[in-house]
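Give me structure tokens for this 148-residue protein.
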Amino acid sequence: MNIRIEELSPMRVASICAVSTHPEINAWEKLREWAEPLGLLDDLAKHPVFGFNNPLPSPNQVTYGYEFWIKIAQDVEVRGDLKTKDFPGGLYAVTTIKGYPNPVLWKQLWDWVQSSQYTWRKTHELENPLNPQAPEDEIVFKLFLPVE
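Here you go.
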């Protein structure tokens, strides 16, 4: 695993959350329907997408939540179920993977942080799909574990 430390700058984001048996798909469709006509998905360097479980999966429930963010300019207005949030940024241990994130990969990143000079910072772990509309066998993610 190639792990590096990156700092995410503060940003304003449009946020959407879905709770279901497949919330990533449901939340993505809502975000895509709003962001695509605005051209936000045409420049993912300028408008990166991040996601995370919210609320977390529970062993006794088949449903859980997933929240997506996309970076937006101050003058962009959101509508419907979307909300705006101000993300404060921060320091993260980061790795890039091909395929969908899974608990084993997150555990490897966590173990690396535990053996490093950094400590885990209690906030959202973020998944950044570099190509969110790519076919399943080509999708690439950056995983961000908050550290200090």
